[in-house]
């Protein structure tokens, strides 16, 4: 190798090594991470640091999908409750919470939100995990009934997509779209942890920004209504009766939300209670009659107590 | 835990973040954690550190964080192996590097090539190479951070440098790297 070649090689090596200067945390990302770690430390929770397990989230989401299947076939939970009641025994319209609570089986794992960290995910970190804060470390995923096409495909982890144009300061959001589905439809699931219960009673509701061409149903899925086969605690028939609030999305960004108290009210005809101490996932479902669809979700956060 | 000891613990954690966050973030990135995951990976390192803060001697903080970062990087690399890395965009607008557009473009291309070269190294070689050639740490410091003998640092570094030089030569031929300057 000539002197010239040697010098060129050294120059190339220096340039390559110097290029590592581009690897630096963005100032905003750095401060955000600081806040999250400190918030978690100061809450002294640290009970859970394991990464979300997609399979686990998948099991619960499939369970939620089955719920939609049963609903879309017109077999509502209240109808099931009546059907399952022994002949001649009337079924109470609302399960009395005081007497129902002692009968609840303990959650296999329980993470208690301390409150004070309402942002679930702003998606700006461009990964499919919820922000790791207040015990949350779940994953965004999509599922469908297999009868149509969806982007990303069913059973996929859902990564944020670039917003063009940006929505104010927001540059990334969750995006999924799909064609016609014939069985129960599709569902976007955010598991709060890696499969156990998340006690979110420190908060009062959920808000998010969205746009799209469809109706979505927001559910907070509790472990008691998820079948045992899917990792939940519900055995036999009569599983899956989450209260769900519909939102008709518009083509422009709009902020939507629901208070947990509303979910309680929505739940009144149901056999199952909505218990904020036993939540597994946030589900946004698109029923088959609302397909095809195209929707964007951004800045998902809890509502704090006033 | 009393309020005073909780406050002291929080102060120590804040100092830990202030002193080491950037180093850990850069290390994770250069150890192969995708850009989309590196914020969370860095956070995970510090969450682990916060959990074990009482067991970590102040003089061993950086070594503890580095060891944790190696494990976290390995986990993140495994979990993201099937997903292609998305190109970084907009970062240069947020970093004040004092470069003109041409220099920045060249640096971005170089970084992409550097990533390729680093991907060709074993994880152990890569860790030593990054700390020596990019972070510019001395061999005894690397040995302490990685918990390996100094001799092992030297031998891994020698192999890594040979690989780096060979890869650079290949780039100069195949990719016409720096060719535009001739």
Helix content of chain B: over 70%
The number of helical runs of chain B is 8
- Unreliable spans of chain A are 44-102
Gross morphology of chain A: globular
Backbone CA Rg of chain B? 18 Å
Class by SSE composition of chain A:
alpha+beta
Question: What do these coordinates show?
Answer:
The complex is a heterodimer of chains A (306) and B (182). Chain A contains six helices and 15 strands. Chain A has helices spanning 3-18, 27-42, 54-72, 77-84, 97-100, 260-266; strands spanning 110-112, 119-121, 140-144, 150-151, 156-157, 161-167, 170-178, 185-191, 197-199, 205-212, 215-222, 244-248, 254-259, 279-287, 293-303. The longest helix of chain A has 19 residues, at 54-72. The model of chain A is unreliable at 44-102 (pLDDT under 50). Chain B contains eight helices and no strands. Chain B is globular, with a radius of gyration of 18 Å. The mean pLDDT of chain B is 80. At the A-B interface, helix 1 and helix 2 of A face helix 1, helix 2, helix 4, helix 5 and helix 8 of B.
Task: Summarize the helices and strands and which ones pair or pack.
The complex is a heterodimer of chains A (about 300) and B (about 180).
Chain A (H helix, E strand, L loop, with lengths): L2 H16 L8 H16 L11 H19 L4 H8 L12 H4 L9 E3 L6 E3 L18 E5 L5 E2 L4 E2 L3 E7 L2 E9 L6 E7 L5 E3 L5 E8 L2 E8 L21 E5 L5 E6 H7 L12 E9 L5 E11 L3
Parallel strand pairs in A: 1-9
Antiparallel strand pairs in A: 2-15, 3-5, 3-8, 4-7, 6-7, 7-15, 8-14, 10-13, 10-15, 11-12, 11-14
Chain B lengths: L2 H28 L4 H17 L9 H19 L11 H4 L6 H19 L3 H12 L4 H8 L3 H25 L8
Helix pairs in contact in B: 1-2, 1-3, 2-3, 6-8, 7-8
Q: TL;DR of this structure?
A:
In chain A, strands 2, 4, 6, 7, 10, 13 and 15 form a seven-stranded antiparallel sheet that branches. Chain A has a six-stranded antiparallel sheet with strand order 5-3-8-14-11-12, with helices on one face. Helices cover 23% and strands 29% of the residues of chain A. The longest helix of chain A has 19 residues, at 54-72.
């Amino acid at each position: 190798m000539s002197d010239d070649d040697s010098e060129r090689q050294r120059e190339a090596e220096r340039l390559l090594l110097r290029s590592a200067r581009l690897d630096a945390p963005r100032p905003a990302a750095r401060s955000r991470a600081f806040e999250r770690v400190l918030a978690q430390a100061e809450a002294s929770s640290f009970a859970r640091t394991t990464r979300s397990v997609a399979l686990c989230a998948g099991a619960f989401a499939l369970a939620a999908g089955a719920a939609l299947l049963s609903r879309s076939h017109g077999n509502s939970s209240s109808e099931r409750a009546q059907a399952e009641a022994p002949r001649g025994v009337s079924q109470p319209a609302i399960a009395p919470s005081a007497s129902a609570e002692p009968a609840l089986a303990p959650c296999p794992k329980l993470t208690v939100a301390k409150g004070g960290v309402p942002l679930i995910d702003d998606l700006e970190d461009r990964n499919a995990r919820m922000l790791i804060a207040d015990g949350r470390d779940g994953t965004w995923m999509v599922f469908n009934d297999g009868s149509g096409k969806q982007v990303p495909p069913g059973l996929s982890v859902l990564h944020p997509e670039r917003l063009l144009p940006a929505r104010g300061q927001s540059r990334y959001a969750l995006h999924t779209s799909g064609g016609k589905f014939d069985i129960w439809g599709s569902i976007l699931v955010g598991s709060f942890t890696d499969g156990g219960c998340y006690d979110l009673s420190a908060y009062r509701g959920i808000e998010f920004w969205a746009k799209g061409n469809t109706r979505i149903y927001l559910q907070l899925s509790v472990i008691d209504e998820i079948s045992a086969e899917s990792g939940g605690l519900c055995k036999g028939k009569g599983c899956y009766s989450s209260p769900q609030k519909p939102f008709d999305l518009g083509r422009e960004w709009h902020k939507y939300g629901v208070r947990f108290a509303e979910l309680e009210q929505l739940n009144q005809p149901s056999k199952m209670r909505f218990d904020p101490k036993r939540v597994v996932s946030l589900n946004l479902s698109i029923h088959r009659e609302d397909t095809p669809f195209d929707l964007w979700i951004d800045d998902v956060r809890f509502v704090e107590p006033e | 835990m009393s309020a005073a000891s909780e406050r002291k613990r929080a102060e120590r954690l804040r100092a830990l973040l202030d002193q080491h966050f950037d180093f850990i973030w850069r290390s994770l990135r250069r150890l192969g954690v995708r850009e989309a995951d590196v914020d969370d990976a860095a956070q995970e390192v510090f969450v682990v550190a916060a959990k074990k803060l009482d067991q970590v001697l102040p003089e061993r903080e950086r070594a503890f964080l580095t060891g944790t970062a190696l494990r976290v990087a390995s986990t993140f690399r495994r979990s993201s192996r099937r997903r292609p890395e998305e190109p970084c965009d907009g970062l240069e607008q947020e970093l004040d590097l004092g470069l003109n557009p041409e220099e920045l473009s060249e640096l971005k291309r170089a970084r992409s090539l550097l990533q390729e070269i680093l991907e060709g190294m074993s994880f152990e070689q890569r860790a030593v190479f990054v700390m020596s050639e990019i972070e510019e740490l001395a061999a005894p410091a690397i040995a302490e951070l990685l918990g390996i003998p100094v001799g092992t640092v030297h031998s891994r570094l020698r192999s890594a440098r040979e690989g780096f030089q060979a890869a650079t030569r290949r780039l100069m031929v195949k990719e016409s790297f720096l060719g535009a300057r001739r």
